[in-house]
Design a protein that fits this description.
Strand order of the largest sheet of chain B: 3-4-10-6-8-7
Largest sheet of chain B: 6 strands, mixed, barrel
Distance between the termini of chain A: 36 Å
Number of helices of chain A: 4
Structural class of chain B: alpha+beta
Strand order of the largest sheet of chain A: 1-3-2
Structural class of chain A: alpha+beta
Oligomer: heterodimer
């Protein structure tokens, strides 16, 4: 196991998926690849865990799915961001960035010598 | 909101019902991902095994992810109503046996109500003329001074009323005539309606085919030979094509069919009516020449439509003017002035002469529906017991749900959802059962009526409205049987804490004595079941009585043929000799041991009556000088008739051959013993003389009584009639029945038909059937039997339900006590003691339930007494018999689980803790 890989924080997988899908319609395999590429492979993610998350997001109406054909010519299930999903992404992104900024400013406090 | 809601609904739907498809889609999706991983690993140079293993590592636990996916489609954490139902579906699917019994129980309970309701609605309630806003009234003709003594209307009265406009917008007339009708060689005696041309328009009926009468055709003596057929007649004839314009034969003459009534229309009454209608103008021809326009010919039933804005209540003041018109006409008889009485159109009888009380019919309807509702109540109680038992068996599941934070309301809702599902399934099944029963009854009654004289409305009685009502009802019923048990089994004090749970609940603190509140449904069920079974017994006995009643004659091993010589083109003088020839030739047929002719047969609703008076000086009875006549049923017969029918000759003799064929001029009669007593008192009646239809001044032909018989019954209902028999030769009749005694009646039918066509080809055969059919297929006999079947069926259902219900409750209760029983057995109790313990409790409950039930049953018997045919409604033997039967069934239902409980291994039972 690579030591510099980070465990995902609770609740961040949804945000990652929504963000990834904002770049276009993708199937699960693509999503996993893109997250790996974008994070330079620094996030630990059992790829199967994408699927419960995808189904949960679909259930909430943030993404919708359709069967299509993959680049390799095989049938694959493509997910697309819905309007509600886009809104949700904006909200979560704002929350996350705000949270991260707050965390950063607290962690950046001068430490006593 | 709505788009979101629809998506939510679609997901729920998918979650509930499209699971398999959804599952496949998920598998394919994940497989694709795995395949891609494997491919990538292969490209990186791994061996196939390594590649697969690495891919699985990378992907993670597929089984777990699958389950997590499934969780997301499940109704979100079983929340909301859809969640309750999804939970209920799963729960019911887990116990198919319970579900099947519950659904079937409810289907029986509701189904019997569907059938009874539609039966009562169609035979009693359905007010064909009342449910349409036509402002129709029935007109009755009473004596002015009494307001009673009704008679029918004469044609001049009809015309006068039709022309009056004080009260009526229009008045239509209907006369009824029983005559031979059919295609040329297939005649039957049926009711024929004589209608004024406005009859159909007044009732707002449109022809299904062709047209109705014109005013010209309806004019007196118009003599247009046209006929409007009832839809049911067309059905009975096999729905011939080109029916309009074809020829029907009525009373020996051809009529052109000009139209047909719509299905379900039978005229003024409910369910039964005439086969066909002819215009009033043809009446004289059809009914044998009597001038029906004479004021003394009173045979019309009138129905009118009130002027717009008037109602039955508001016309009373205006009727006087109408009465004056009526009384300005030449009088029909010497009884004085008439008075018009108006009433709502009658519901049942054909051509009521006066307004009839509807109380008996209403009573029948209320009782019949009451009893079937009782069946439903028993079914619901039964279901309540089953739900209670099941709920307690699911104790652990419920306790866990409560412990995990589900509110009591939530759990109750889930349990009631199960009840609603059962209700929906049961309701649907009951409609199917009801439809099946309805089809059966329609075909049965058509068979019964085909031999009768009426047309039967042929409308199926389970219709759309009834189906909707049933389904609504089947959703209401579960609230009754599942809400209360659900509330009881979720009581908080039953669930002190989770640790204690071991699959069975602790004995509830309330269960100390022999009886608790929880026993009430069981006791009520036993009591109501007894009531139902007892009522059923009474009706079944009535059905048996109507078969076994003393008829006063023996209808077996006989054939009867109805031949109407009026319908043949034979010289009147030839009729008697021809009949005599027929009688003689029929005697020569193979197997025939005796023959006779008669002018009517018992159980055929065609007994005509005559006024009979004792000759002056021959009687010791003081007669009322104003009304010295007796009315007696009159039959003309040939010699041998009494012996052939098995009518008991008490005194004197049968007619001699000379009297029978008319060659003896000495007028004779045979009368029944009751008439003899009424006419002559206690003196020897044989040899005394009487008069038939004497003139008003007391003159008439003197007839000598030569024999006394015991009168045969003429109908299942009513008293045995007074009777007088005359020799056919001395009192000729053209319409006769030929009776043949033969060991195998059915075997002779074809031979006889051929024989008749050879001997009397010009005389139409109106009817040819085993004589016993007159009794067995008599409509009153059939009705009593039908009621017996309906109520007997309800009682049988109640008995089955009682056993199932008691068994369910007892089986469950003893299962709950398994630990206690185990302890008892471990401490040395003998199995027999344990058995007695449980049986004793069952016995006490059964006893209490039966005691309450006997009171209820007697009350029900009192209510039913007027509907029972010759049955004592308080019959103690029947009551005790029913109680014993039910008691035995209840004890058996207790004994089986009790016996099972004693087989418990004490160690197993205690260790279950």
């Amino acid at each position: 196991m690579t030591t510099n890989r980070q465990e995902l924080l609770q609740g961040t997988l949804d945000l990652l998926i929504l963000k990834t899908l904002s770049t276009g319609d993708l199937h699960g395999w693509d999503i996993a690849k893109r997250i790996a590429v974008a994070s330079s492979d620094r996030l630990t993610l059992k790829q199967g865990s994408l699927y419960p998350a995808l189904h949960r997001l679909e259930n909430r109406g943030w993404i919708e799915a359709e069967w299509g054909v993959s680049d390799g010519g095989r049938a694959a299930k493509f997910y697309r961001l819905t309007r509600a999903g886009r809104k949700q992404l904006a909200e979560e992104k704002e929350y996350w960035l705000g949270f991260a900024a707050a965390m950063t400013s607290v962690l950046d406090l001068e430490e006593a010598p | 909101m709505s788009a979101e809601f629809l998506r939510w609904l679609a997901l729920r739907w998918r979650g509930l019902f499209a699971r398999d498809r959804h599952e496949a889609s998920m598998d394919r999706e994940m497989q694709f991902h795995l395949d891609m991983l494997v491919q990538e690993n292969l490209a990186a140079g791994m061996t196939p095994e390594e590649a697969r293993a690495a891919a699985q590592r990378e992907f993670g636990g597929a089984a777990q992810y699958r389950e997590e996916c499934r969780d997301t489609w499940r109704p979100a954490a079983v929340s909301g109503l859809a969640g309750d139902f999804a939970y209920a579906v799963r729960s019911l699917r887990r116990s198919p046996g319970f579900t099947a019994v519950a659904v079937f129980t409810l289907a029986l309970g509701i189904g019997v109500n569907v059938v009874m309701f539609s039966f009562v609605r169609d035979s009693i309630l359905r007010p064909f003329l009342r449910d349409r806003n036509l402002n129709l009234v029935a007109l009755y003709n009473a004596r002015a001074d009494t307001g009673r003594n009704f008679r029918y209307f004469s044609h001049p009265e009809f015309v006068a009323l039709r022309e009056s406009h004080e009260v009526f917008a229009d008045v239509a007339a209907l006369g009824l005539h029983v005559g031979a009708i059919g295609p040329e060689h297939n005649l039957q005696r049926r009711f024929i309606g004589l209608a004024s041309e406005n009859f159909f328009s007044l009732l707002d009926v449109k022809p299904a085919q062709g047209r109705f009468f014109t005013a010209e055709e309806s004019q007196p003596d118009a003599a247009a030979a046209v006929v409007v057929a009832n839809h049911a007649l067309w059905d009975r004839l096999g729905r011939p094509a080109n029916f309009i314009g074809s020829t029907l034969w009525l009373e020996g003459r051809p009529y052109t069919v000009i139209g047909m009534t719509p299905p379900g229309f039978v005229g003024l009454h409910v369910s039964i009516g005439p086969d066909a209608w002819v215009p009033l103008g043809i009446a004289r021809q059809l009914t044998g020449g009597a001038d029906f326009t004479k004021p003394t010919e009173t045979r019309l039933t009138l129905v009118g439509r009130l002027q717009p804005g008037l109602s039955l209540a508001s016309v009373t003041g205006r009727l006087e003017a109408v009465d004056r018109r009526l009384n300005a006409l030449p009088p029909a008889d010497s009884l004085g002035a008439r008075r018009l009485v108006l009433a709502p159109p009658a519901r049942t009888d054909l051509g009521n002469v006066g307004p009839e009380s509807e109380v008996p019919l209403g009573l029948f309807g209320v009782l019949a529906l009451g009893l079937t509702l009782l069946v439903l109540l028993v079914a619901c109680l039964n279901l309540a017991n089953m739900f209670l038992a099941r709920g307690v068996a699911r104790y652990k599941e419920i306790a866990i749900r409560l412990a995990l934070g589900a509110s009591r309301w939530r759990v109750v809702r889930g349990l009631v959802a199960e009840g609603l599902l059962i209700g929906l399934l049961g309701g649907t099944l009951s409609v199917v059962l009801g439809q099946w029963c309805s089809d059966f009854m329609v075909s049965w009654s058509h068979d019964a009526f085909a031999a009768g004289k009426f047309a039967l409305q042929s409308v199926p009685f389970v219709d759309g409205k009834l189906i909707v009502a049933t389904l609504v009802f089947s959703l209401l019923a579960p609230l009754a049987f599942s809400l209360w048990p659900a509330w009881r089994i979720t009581r908080a004090d039953l669930y002190p804490d989770l640790k204690q749970i071991a699959g069975a609940p602790p004995v509830s603190p309330a269960r100390r004595g022999w009886l608790t509140l929880g026993d009430v449904p069981l006791l009520a069920q036993i009591a109501l079941s007894l009531t139902l079974i007892f009522s059923a017994t009474l009706f079944v006995r009535a059905a048996r009585n109507v078969r076994t009643i003393d008829l006063g004659f023996h209808p077996d091993h006989q054939l009867a043929v109805q031949l109407d010589y009026n319908l043949a083109t034979i010289d009147t003088a030839q009729i008697r000799p021809r009949q005599q020839e027929l009688l003689a030739s029929a005697r020569t047929l193979p197997g025939v041991t005796a023959t006779a002719l008669s002018s009517n047969v018992p159980y055929n609703f065609d007994l005509s009556t005559r006024a009979v008076r004792a000759a002056a000086g021959d009687s010791t009875v003081l007669t009322d000088p104003k009304n010295p006549n007796q009315r007696a049923g009159y039959t003309a017969v040939t010699r041998g008739y009494f012996t052939l029918l098995g009518i008991e000759l008490l005194q004197g003799r049968d007619f001699t051959p000379e009297e029978s064929d008319g060659s003896s001029a000495h007028q004779v009669a045979v009368i029944d013993v009751s008439l003899a007593r009424k006419l002559f008192g206690e003196v020897e009646p044989v040899g005394r003389r009487l008069m038939v239809n004497p003139k008003a001044n007391g003159d008439g032909t003197l007839i000598e009584v030569v024999g006394i018989i015991r009168s045969p019954r003429n109908d299942a209902f009513g008293p045995v009639p007074l009777r007088i028999y005359r020799p056919l030769g001395q009192a000729p009749e053209a319409n006769v029945y030929l009776h043949l005694q033969v060991p195998e009646p059915l075997a002779l039918v074809d031979t006889l038909r051929k024989h008749l066509q050879a001997v009397a080809p010009e005389v139409p055969i109106l009817l040819l059937r085993p004589f016993s059919d007159f009794v067995d297929k008599n409509i009153n006999v059939l009705l009593v039997q039908l009621v017996g079947v309906i109520f007997g069926g309800s009682g049988g259902i109640a008995l089955v339900l009682a056993v199932v219900g008691v068994y369910g409750v007892k089986a469950h209760a003893t299962a709950r006590r398994a630990r206690e029983i185990g302890v008892r057995l471990a401490l040395g109790a003998r199995p027999r003691d344990v058995l007695m313990l449980i049986l004793k409790q069952g016995l006490i409950q059964a006893g209490l339930g039966l005691a309450a039930g006997m009171g209820l049953a007697l009350a029900a018997g009192a209510g039913l007494s007027s509907m029972l045919y010759r049955v004592n409604p308080f019959d103690p033997v029947a009551l005790l018999g029913c109680a014993a039967l039910l008691g035995a069934a209840v004890l058996l239902a207790c004994w089986i689980p009790a016996r099972r409980a004693t087989k418990v291994d004490p160690l197993v039972a205690i260790r279950a803790e």
